[in-house]
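Researcher: Here's the sequence for the chain we discussed earlier.
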Amino acid sequence: SNFNHRAVSRAGAKGLMQLMPQTASALNVDDVFHPNDNIEGGARYLRYLLNLYRGNLTLALAAYNAGEGAVAKYNYAIPPYRETQDYVRRVLSFYEAFSKS
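Model: Thanks. This is the structure I predict for it:
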């Protein structure tokens, strides 16, 4: 989203946390373009994924980016999509950097 709360991806993901419409609906996000609603929904989705993958942050991030089906399709590994691999690497790098401070 590049910090644009009105962002819409080519795939249809919306808002700051780039929630797909079906995911936003399942999470009861009222307004995907409202920053608070979107971030809350994205955080709930990430918590769901962390629970689903038993705390495996790498798989949770891969599923957040590419979808749960893609992670399952590739035997519960990061799918071989450049965008997803870059996303997981970038987020883990930020996570490690912020964890140290």
